Structure formats: C-alpha cells, structure tokens
TrEMBL record:
It comes from the Bacteria. PANTHER family: HOMOCYSTEINE S-METHYLTRANSFERASE-LIKE ISOFORM 1, ZGC:172121. Zn(2+) binds at C217, C284, C285. It comes from Streptomyces hydrogenans. Residues 4-299 form the Hcy-binding domain. Its cofactor is Zn(2+). This is Homocysteine S-methyltransferase. Keywords: Metal-binding, Methyltransferase, Transferase, Zinc. InterPro entries: HCY_dom, HCY_dom_sf, Hcy_S-methyltransferase.
Length: 300
C-alpha cells in the first residue's frame, strides 16, 4: 500500500488508473467461475490465481487494485460449509493478496459488493430486494468491519443498484476509519432500481468519508452523463469503471455484441470521463489488461 499520502490526497494530484475485470482475467488464466461464489471461491481454493490476476493488472499499469471480496460474504461462504472464523480469514486474505501484488507502491480498494451479489441471481442489477435500509445495514456491517480492519486504503462500495442500499452502506461504514468511494450501476440514465441519479448521488453529499462517487458495471456510454450529475450534486471527484460494452446472454451463457471500451476506445473515453470529473478510471467486466495499459498510455 502507499502510506506516504492519503488516498484523498492522491486523487487531488490527478487521475489514478484502476484495474480491470477480475473475473475475465481469472478466466483467461483458466479458472472455472461457474460456482455461485464466482471469483470469491478462489480465495479459499486457489488464492495464487487471484494474486496472479492482480499482478497482471499491475504490469498493465494499474495503480489501484480492487480486491476479490465483491461476492465474499458470511452468508455465501456459510452455504459452502465455512464458519465465521474461516470467512473472516478469507476476507482478510483478499486485502493481503492485492497488497502483495501491488508490492507496496499501489493502492488497495477493498470491494464491498451489493446484497444482490450474495444472492447470485442477478438481482444486483435490479435492487429493491424487499429489505429495509436497517436490514441492509446489518447485512453489510460485519464484512465492512473485517475489511476495514485488514488495512486497505479505501473501501469500494461498488455496483450499487439502489439508493436505499447506498444509504445502508454509508451507515455501515460510518466510523470504520477508512475512506470510501460509492459507485452505482446504472441504465437509461437512472439507477438500476429506476431512481433519479441526482437523488441517488445526494446520499453522499456532505459525507466527508466519501472521497469519490460515480458508476461501474454499466455501459460505457452511460458513464459521462452520470459523472456529470455526480459532480454537480456532490462536488466530489468521480470514479468510473464500466464494462466493455458487451452484454451477457443468460440463455446461451455467452457475451454478445461488440466492444465499446477496449484499447482503441480507451483514450477517447478516458478524456471524456476526466472532463466530466473522473479521477479514478478503470474497467469492470470484460475489460482486460490491454485496455488498462491503454488508459495508462493515454494519461501519460
């Protein structure tokens, strides 16, 4: 990790390059991610593969590594027979693996995925789980506390589909002593739950623990507009790491469509995102090391 400056100070100095999709890099390495735990399974079964995936992004120029804890929850691991102590150890391991791959010079963002990621049924792209803000806060708090204690530079509250869950997450992280970024997944200029983006970003306004706001796991074309709204509402730096633009066909279990965010498109998109206020720029699903390298080259 990088203790000489705070993460917020690093953002003030200019754009930081995030990594890309962990799952697609793991698949490139030959890993099977068909399990309901997705890449989180490898924390227990093949941690070296996660370390290798992080290292691939470091070689590509990523300055911020997002941990493999997105789908790592006490409930999810309990279904696999792991007790609370074992799950705590795996959550800590996710931070250690990223820190080791960064070789002490990069930043580590501990991923806190939405409640829907634990369900493993795609509901993180719908939100509205039928739970109250207080119930969602209780779900998130235990792993937030463990991840924060493991010593990351920032917590990535990511792929959030619903303003209510964003409120719950911000309650859960309050007082943990680690800065956070808040990143919604959006579609059609609204949250995945259909809420107005200005209202959704307003939950982070005035919260000094939140050092960046933005979007991830969305179409690249959605990003600039959402970043503009986020900046207008909160005045905070932007974070953006969309998908490649391809779409998952659940029936055929294959990716469809062309790539809208690859190495060729990265420089132009990154310039537009920076102009819209982004200071953290990277990729999510299907965005690999080649695109991350192009981002680093664009920034110079």
């Amino acid at each position: 990790m990088a203790p000489a400056r705070t993460f917020a100070q690093a953002l003030a100095d200019g754009v930081l390059v995030l990594d890309g999709g962990l799952s697609n890099q793991l698949e490139t390495q030959g890993c099977d991610l068909t399990d309901a735990l997705w890449s989180a399974r490898l924390l227990a079964d093949a941690p070296a593969q996660i370390g290798a995936a992080h290292a691939a992004y470091v070689r590509a120029g990523a300055e911020v590594l997002i941990t493999s804890s997105y789908q790592a929850t006490y409930e999810g691991f309990a279904r696999r027979g792991l007790d609370g102590a074992a799950t705590t150890a795996l959550l800590r391991r996710s931070v250690t693996l990223a820190a080791e791959a960064g070789r002490g010079s990069g930043w580590v963002a501990a991923s806190v995925g939405p409640y829907g990621a634990m369900l493993a049924d795609g509901s993180e792209y719908r939100g509205r789980y039928g739970l109250s803000v207080r119930e969602l806060e209780r779900f998130h708090r235990p792993r937030v506390e463990v991840l924060a204690a493991a010593g990351p530079d920032v917590l990535a509250l990511e792929t959030v589909p619903d303003a209510d869950e964003a409120e719950a997450l911000l309650r859960a992280v309050a007082g943990c002593g680690v800065p956070v970024w808040l990143s919604y997944t959006v579609a059609g200029g609204r949250t995945r739950a259909g809420q107005d983006l200005a209202d959704a970003f307003a939950v982070a306004a005035g919260n000094d623990q939140v050092v960046a706001v933005g979007v991830n796991c969305c179409e690249p074309a959605e990003a600039a507009g959402a970043l503009t709204v986020a900046a207008e509402v909160t005045g905070k730096p932007g974070v953006v790491y969309p998908n490649s633009g391809e779409r998952w066909d659940a029936t055929t279990r294959a990716w469809r469509g062309g790539t809208a965010f690859g190495p060729a498109e990265a420089p132009g998109l990154a310039a537009a995102w920076e102009a819209a206020g982004a200071r953290l720029i990277g990729g999510c699903c299907r965005v690999g090391p080649g695109t991350i390298a192009a981002l680093g080259g664009w920034r110079g």
